[in-house]
Amino acid sequence: MLKGKTVVLGVSGGISAYKMANIASKLVKLHADVHVIMTKNACNFINPITFETLTKNKCITDTFDRDFEFNVEHVSLAKKCDLFLVAPATANVIGKMANGICDDMLTTTIFACKAPKLVAPAMNTNMYQNPILKDNLKKLEGYGFKIIKPESGFLACGDLGEGRLPSDDVLIDSILAEIAFPHDLEGKNVLITAGPTKEAIDPVRYITNHSSGKMGYAIANNAYLRGANVTLISGDVNVKAINGINVINVKSALDMFEAVKDNYKNQDYIIMSAAIADYTPKSYSNDKIKKNDNDMTIELSRTQDILKYLGENKKDNQKLIGFSMETKDLIENSTLKLNKKNADMICANSINGEKTGFKSDTNEITLIKRDGNKLLSLDTKENLAKLILDEIKEL
After folding, report:
1. How far is CA 204 from CA 207, 291, 294, in A?
2. What is the pLDDT of residues 133-161, one digit of tens each?
3. What is the DSSP string of 353-376?
4. Residues 376, 377, 383, 386: what is their CA dihedral angle, to the nearest 10 degrees?
5. Residue 389: which residues within 8 A CB-CB, separation 6 or more?
6. What is the phi-psi region of residue 251: left when phi exceeds 0, alpha when psi lies from -120 to 50, beta otherwise?
7. What is the pLDDT of residues 187-197, one digit of tens each?
8. In this predicted model, what pLDDT tens digit does every residue of 370-395 receive, in sequence order?
């Protein structure tokens, strides 16, 4: 995902400096070219050899080291990098960056850097809450730096409160959100539904479907990485959304309908990828559940048709995209759905192959549009998500 991108990690002298080895490793696995600059104090917490082994690049620790690759190292590396992350960022290095003090390789290089700059403060709670530190962070934000807020919890010093270095996922997701894709959806509001709904039969059992949510989450993640403001209304799934996406968890079809009604009006794109359990039990009461020794019959009623509601209430500036999954006559039924539900596009899922459908990591989709259909051949759901969003942009 980061192939061809250069990420510079600035590691300053905090106890959480050792955690950055894992960040460096994960970035390398994402095919980034990773360079690490350490302050002198950071070397007391983790050995530079660790970073050199992981990144296959020399770890820079000395401004006056003559054994380097570039002609003017702090300038060359600053020009080369696509993103600069300072983590952990101590109060000391934050103060230097905010006030233009360049007295080591980290501060000198970031001062010469025009690429996006992220800062992840990590320190004692009282230090983090110090008004001087807060003023310095505001200064950095005013200069275009983005601050990744620290987490709260038990700190190495024994205190409990704000100041912990954010998790690996938060740091990696923050990097991906900046440079993984061009921000061609910047300023767009995108609402996506994903996953299955569950309709209770009684306090123990429920009706559901096999949806994994993988396709919807892939679309949500890709939209967010392209700069969109994403709201994801999700059933119960085991898929991860990127940090920064507004996730609203729901259970039943009625829950999902209410969440959609509450959130759809200010959206530019509405993408209904959730697999709704089409029928719901009318009641838990025994008179609605007929039993004998061999079977159980449950009275069912239709759930709210969310796509139809959105089609009837769609705003002029909105684009409505539905998903269709049929066991037969896929294209014909999906075309009927496009017109009947007043959608702008239907993504017709193939479920007849071993590598397509709910649980798989790959899929084959036919895009049904008013000006013609387009086949998206078998591919990963992540790649298909990008192609689907590309098509939505052109509607």
Report:
1. 11, 16, 20
2. 999 999 999 999 999 999 887 777 777 77
3. STTSSSS-SEEEEEEEETTEEEEE
4. -10
5. 185, 219, 222, 223, 226
6. alpha
7. 999 999 999 99
8. 999 999 999 999 999 999 999 999 98
- Model-level pTM? 0.88
- Determine if the peptide bond prior to 48 is cis (ω within 30°): no
Which residues of the chain are modeled with pLDDT < 70? 63-74, 277-300, 353
pLDDT for the residue numbered 74: 57
Domains and CATH numbers, the chain: 6-179 (3.40.50.1950), 189-394 (3.40.50.10300)
Q: For residue 86, which phi and psi values (nearest 5 degrees)?
A: -100, 110
φ and ψ at residue 325, rounded to 5 degrees: -135, 110
Cβ(352)–Cβ(365) below 8 Å:
no
Catalytic-role residue among 59, 81, 102, 157: 157
Q: Tell me the torsion sign for CA atoms 170, 30, 362, 220.
A: positive
In this prediction, residue 326 carries a pLDDT of: 77
C-alpha count within 13 angstroms, C-beta hemisphere, residue 141: 11
Give pLDDT tens digits for 40-75: 999 999 999 999 999 999 999 876 665 555 554 557
Mapping DSSP to helix (H, G, I), strand (E, B) and coil, where does residue 104 land? coil
So what's the pLDDT on residue 199? Answer: 86
Per-residue burial over 305-324, b if 16 or more Cβ lie within 10 Å, else e, is bbbeebbeebeeebbbbbbb
Nearest Cα to Cα of residue 65 among 96, 7, 105, 34 = 105
- Under a CB-based contact definition with an 8 Å cutoff, are residues 94 and 128 in contact? no
CB 277 within 8 A of CB 227: no
Strands (E), 132-201: 146-147, 151-154, 160-164, 189-194, 199-200
Report helix, strand or coil for 123.
coil
3-state class (DSSP) for residue 40: coil
Contact 242, 225 (CB under 8 A): yes
* 157 has catalytic annotation: yes
Please state, in angstroms and as integers, the Cα–Cα distance from residue 184 to each residue in 22, 59, 175, 250, 390, following that order.
30, 34, 17, 30, 10
Q: Read out DSSP for 43-75?
A: GGTS-HHHHHHHHSSPPB--TT-S--SSSSHHH
What is the distance between the alpha carbons of residues 119 and 87, in angstroms, rounded to a whole number? 6
Report the relative pairing of strands 117-121 and 146-147 from DSSP bridges: parallel
